[in-house]
């Protein structure tokens, strides 16, 4: 809040490019030697995405303390593109170099950039996540999943109900001042810092407690090792990259471990010295398509369910606005609210066989003597929330089933199959790519 910021904020310092490059080389060398590398991030990693910080000269709390209005237009957090720093951390994660990420940010950009849920400890919550206190299930949303402004400050109910418990309210994950940090993220973050031999702070003033105690833990251990070994350096190191001075600067044991730079500029040089390219941001959406097929010779009613999931293939993720089903020769069916459940009737492959017969003059041949393998292509037209301007996407989903001849015994009257897809969108060219991942019988 405003009372935590100074009306006269600390001066921002910008070191020369050659100094930043030299210090980046020092950190790259430490990263290559590190066995447990941990990163701690603050609002400074998101400023180049158009999201203001809190205690900088134009920070949110600073402006409130000074009674001024913002002069620069900020970006809607839902439309913010993850920065070079975000994407560098994703690449370090994917290569197994980064062991843990601790963040004070609520903007959701780390998760959106590709950081796994089991990798990050979001100490102050995430504006895109709500959860049920009864079943502990989390729900990832492509919209603001926060309590309405008209609720009391410490009432975190978002107004939606848990789809699993039905009657239980969902709560946001945002931590307000004077509230305790969530135990699970804190415990995970503390465990990482206890093991860390290298902790990098990016874009944080290290003002807010108790979050700032985590890098302090690493820094104090480094100082104790240095004193014990009576050496200039230590086996453990705290590195801080922030434009303003912090209260933990004294724990950076060497001048080259304290960097005054924009985090993007610094991480760009660090990755250069590691010889690791920084990937471009892509919107990644995982989706499960479940089909429930009537395998009887006469056909019947079939059902397809479409649901978004997080990278763990389990946590529900809401990023679809509507789903439209188009079957061969059938009229389109559309669902505009979750759950996206659509049905159709008929014999699987019947209309596609008829069309093939008209085109070729003969019925298409099918595998098997008694149990023919039949297939039908479902067209699923997916409309997204569109925060990144994503256009609708057509997904061709093939349903295959073994249908016995008329009069034969039906061993499995219904066939349930779950198929996982990953959809990748490039904001640069405005195109979707769908990738089939796996199918499983339910």
What's a quick, concise take on this entry?
The chain is built from 8 helices and 20 strands. It has 442 residues and is α/β, with parallel strands linked by helices.
Brief descriptors of the model:
single chain, 442 residues, alpha/beta, six-stranded parallel β-sheet, five-stranded mixed β-sheet, 8 helices, 21% helix
The helix content, as a percent range, equals: 10-25%
* Largest sheet geometry: 6 strands, parallel
Q: What shape does the CA trace take?
A: elongated
Mean pLDDT: 87
Widest sheet, order of strands: 3-2-1-8-9-10
N-end to C-end Cα span: 50 Å
**Helix/strand/pairing class, anyone?**
alpha/beta
What string gives the helices and strands in order?
HEHHEHEEEEEHEHEEHEEEEEEHEEEE
Total beta strands: 20
Q: Which runs of at least 5 residues are low in confidence (pLDDT < 50)?
A: 353-371
Determine the number of helices (DSSP H or I, runs of at least 4 residues).
Answer: 8
Alpha-carbon Rg, integer: 27 Å
As a percent range, the share of strand residues is 25-35%
Structural overview:
This protein is α/β, with parallel strands linked by helices and 442 residues long. It is 21% helix and 30% strand. It is elongated, with a radius of gyration of 27 Å.
Q: How are the secondary structure elements laid out?
A:
Elements: H1 17-33, E1 37-41, H2 60-66, H3 84-94, E2 98-103, H4 109-113, E3 120-122, E4 129-132, E5 138-141, E6 157-161, E7 169-172, H5 183-195, E8 198-202, H6 213-229, E9 237-241, E10 258-259, H7 263-274, E11 283-294, E12 300-309, E13 317-318, E14 320-326, E15 333-335, E16 340-346, H8 350-360, E17 371-384, E18 393-404, E19 414-426, E20 431-441
Parallel strand pairs: 1-2, 1-8, 2-3, 5-13, 8-9, 9-10
Antiparallel strand pairs: 4-5, 4-7, 6-7, 11-12, 11-19, 12-16, 14-15, 14-17, 17-18, 19-20
Helix pairs in contact: 1-7, 5-6
